[in-house]
Amino acid sequence: MVAEIVCVGTELLLGNIVNTNAQYISKEMARLGIDLYYQTVVGDNEERLSNVLKTALERSDLIIMTGGLGPTKDDLTKEVAAAFFGKELVFDKKTYEHVKNKLESYGIHQMTESQKKQAMVPEGSLVVANTVGLAPGIIMAQGEKAIVMLPGPPKEMKAVLGECCQLFIKRLSDHVFVSINIKCKGPDEMPLREIGEAPIADLLGEILDSENPTVATYAKEDGVLIRVTAAGKTREEALILMKPVVTKIAEILAGKIAWVKEDTD
Question: Which of 3, 32, 94, 194 is the most buried (most CB within 10 A)?
Fold first, then answer.
């Protein structure tokens, strides 16, 4: 199962907001064992969004989209996604009642036509309630392809993604990813930040070519981080796969390791 993230919003391209959604979704997909190969950001433009979605569906199985589900004319995610699966937008009474009740809780008792738009969903889709906002999440599946649409505001995105993972996404993977982080240090007289990535990589040699688990080095401001990541049916199986590699790294870098811990972020 190969996933791809498509974040929709001109404000992302202009740098008006930081795209924290992509980072959060990426970590969730790794936790669930979903392979994530691509991320794309596209503005609120129907043609460009359509082209991006076309490319994504050609190379990935699961497309996770954020943004563009609001009430305004430039919120086009539902319309474009529905068109790819040949679906019409239909009125969803449950979503309408949710939006109506939510607006009333904000002191708004007259719903505009634009706000009613949020109750229009692709026919045959699974609608996921947004417990902290208005626009619902939407899951569409056809053949071996699926599109999950999430609201853009991070708080709402996180809540709806959690439900989508429980209802649909976690069933798509038969394995999990587990990572162990190893932080390198130098001699006592050498600041941690002066430990170079290249010398560490040279010491590890062919270990960096390992496929499961994979081993990668990262230059950080306070030193070098080594991440060992394994895929297994369970966390325990992944940890067993990693153990000999982590042990070998510890032997090679004896005296140069500050700490070793599982990545749980």
Answer: 3
